[in-house]
């Protein structure tokens, strides 16, 4: 019996250890779009009011987790539509726009097969894009609709993978599995020269805005608000700019 | 004197907790899925494509695993040689690899820039063949391990008798060892098939996700989860049912095989 009691006590300590830790600071859980990874991680390290832990994934997967009852403290998406939808369902507070990004055509550095979006429509070119529900995939489809039916169909024919988040597209590119992919300019910057960005013609470029909101019912609302405030004017903003994001207009 | 009763009670409690924990999520999938959801999920072309691809790729993977894994396991189980324990452990490594690590490893080995993939100019990544490779990699240890145990449990005198009667090594393997070990082999095959049907991470990293080409049922479920939870549940229910039916089928076939095998030996 004593052994069992010890085991139960030990596992209770373990579980408690996984929960809140012992530093006294509140813990902030932030669900954030994959493309925010570098900027948010350095911001999180310097954020003093709370210890911050992140879950990075496609904004759509994170929103689905929140709809299914997951309760982080902050939700940051690579578009404004998903935070608005969660706000309409009263799952998060009113979202604010905190950053802008640019969709670009990315190719492996040194590759010459693809020099423009029109090259992507040529037969035999391999392309990776985001799946329709993840923001990067939905921006990509906006670009395609501006290109016209014939070219858009030719490009879709070259799509070899529809990835659940932008990280998947970057991975397929850096592994040499595809010749080109549509990602954010910040993702190209983060590869430190392994990928090269080709800008899209201005008439095709979608408006890419990032929305963030405090999740309803969080016990850490104050810290969550401060986390968001630091992104619009503070350390978080510098980290975003350093990662290649633009100020939200 | 109830003192000596606590241990059996603890065993029963442990079993009950194990059962509830393992069965509850599967039950929840069916509780939350209406028959209408199930039918509309089956009527959806994306789901059907994903299920068909899952069945095809996992069947091919299983065929490869059986064809190569069975003799390999037989050798490991029936011959004493230096380094056998090390080999056995090496073969089991994929069992403990996180799927993402398996995916990275496959890319580093067989990808376009991989140590074998680049010189051999392999075209597996983002192709259906790549899915088969990923499934085979993660699932085969489940079979080989079980097959090794099944062959290891055979009575050596049975194999010896077969050889003495002039059957030869190959005939002894196909006519005596395999039929006698069939239940164990089938259990291993069922595990491997189930693992292959459920594979997600390595497939996504190595083969990508494209409808009809590389998007297997688990990848389709993940994609669906982002937009339509009931539909994701329905497709999950279908996958559970299909996997369950396959596993049951394999076990039944093995049982009847084993019976006829025993009968044949009894007649001989």
Alpha-carbon distance between the two ends of chain A: 65 Å
- Percent helix among the residues of chain A? 40-55%
Number of helices of chain B: 11
What does the overall shape of chain A look like?
Answer: elongated
Largest sheet of chain A, in brief, is: 5 strands, mixed
What is the first-to-last residue Cα distance of chain B?
57 Å
Unreliable runs of chain A:
1-22
Oligomer: heterodimer
How much helicity do the residues of chain B have?
A: over 70%
The helix/strand class of chain A is alpha/beta
Radius of gyration of chain B: 22 Å
The stretches of 5 or more residues of chain B where confidence is low (pLDDT under 50) are none
On the 0 to 100 scale, the average pLDDT of chain B is 88
Number of beta strands of chain B: 0
Beta-strand segment tally of chain A: 10
Strand content of chain B: under 5%
Task: Label the overall shape of chain B.
Answer: globular
The biggest sheet of chain B, with number of strands, parallel, antiparallel or mixed sense and barrel status, is: none
Order of helices and strands of chain A: HEHEHEHEEEHHEHEHEEHH
Q: Which two chains form the greatest contact, residue counts included? A: A-B, 27 and 23 residues
């Amino acid at each position: 019996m004593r052994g069992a009691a010890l085991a139960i006590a030990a596992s209770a300590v373990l579980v408690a250890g996984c929960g809140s830790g012992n530093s006294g600071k509140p813990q902030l859980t932030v669900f954030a779009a994959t493309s925010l990874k570098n900027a948010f991680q350095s911001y999180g390290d310097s954020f003093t009011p709370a210890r911050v832990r992140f879950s990075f994934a496609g904004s759509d997967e994170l929103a689905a987790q929140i709809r299914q009852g997951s309760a982080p403290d902050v939700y940051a998406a690579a578009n404004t539509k998903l935070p608005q939808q969660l706000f309409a369902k009263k799952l998060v507070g009113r979202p604010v726009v905190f950053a802008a990004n640019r969709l670009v055509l990315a190719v492996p550095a040194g590759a010459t097969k693809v020099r423009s979006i029109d090259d992507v429509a040529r037969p035999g070119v391999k392309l990776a894009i985001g799946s329709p529900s993840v923001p990067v995939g939905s921006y990509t489809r906006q670009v395609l609709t501006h290109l016209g039916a014939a070219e858009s169909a030719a490009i879709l024919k070259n799509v070899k993978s529809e990835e659940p988040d932008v990280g998947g597209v970057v991975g397929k590119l850096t592994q040499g599995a595809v010749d080109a992919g549509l990602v954010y300019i910040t993702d190209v910057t983060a590869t430190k020269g392994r990928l090269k960005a080709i800008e899209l013609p201005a008439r095709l470029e979608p408006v890419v805005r990032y929305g963030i909101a405090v999740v309803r019912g969080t016990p850490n609302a104050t810290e969550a608000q401060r986390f968001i405030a630091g992104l619009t004017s503070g350390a978080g903003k510098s980290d975003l700019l350093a990662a290649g994001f633009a100020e939200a207009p | 004197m109830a003192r000596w009763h606590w241990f059996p009670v603890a065993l029963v409690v442990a079993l009950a907790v194990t059962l509830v924990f393992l069965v509850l999520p599967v039950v929840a999938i069916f509780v939350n899925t209406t028959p209408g959801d199930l039918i509309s999920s089956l009527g959806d072309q994306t789901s059907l494509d994903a299920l068909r691809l899952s069945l095809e790729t996992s069947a091919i993977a299983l065929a490869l695993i059986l064809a190569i894994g069975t003799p390999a396991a037989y050798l490991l189980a029936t011959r004493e040689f230096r380094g056998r324990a090390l080999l056995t452990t090496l073969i089991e490594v994929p069992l403990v690899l996180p799927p993402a690590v398996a995916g990275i490893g496959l890319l580093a080995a067989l990808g376009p820039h991989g140590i074998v993939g680049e010189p051999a100019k392999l075209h597996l990544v983002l192709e259906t063949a790549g899915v088969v490779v990923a499934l085979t990699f993660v699932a085969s240890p489940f079979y080989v391990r079980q097959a090794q145990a099944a062959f290891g449990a055979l009575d050596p005198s049975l194999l010896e008798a077969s050889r003495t009667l002039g059957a030869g090594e190959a005939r002894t393997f196909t006519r005596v060892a395999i039929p006698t070990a069939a239940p164990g082999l089938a259990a291993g095959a069922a595990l491997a098939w189930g693992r292959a049907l459920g594979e997600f991470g390595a497939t996504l990293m190595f083969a990508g996700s494209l409808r009809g080409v590389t998007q297997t049922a688990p990848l389709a479920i993940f994609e669906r989860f982002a937009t339509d939870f009931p539909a994701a549940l329905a497709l999950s229910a279908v996958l559970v049912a299909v996997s369950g039916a396959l596993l049951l089928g394999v076990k039944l076939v093995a049982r009847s095989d084993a019976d006829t095998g025993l009968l044949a030996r009894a007649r001989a």
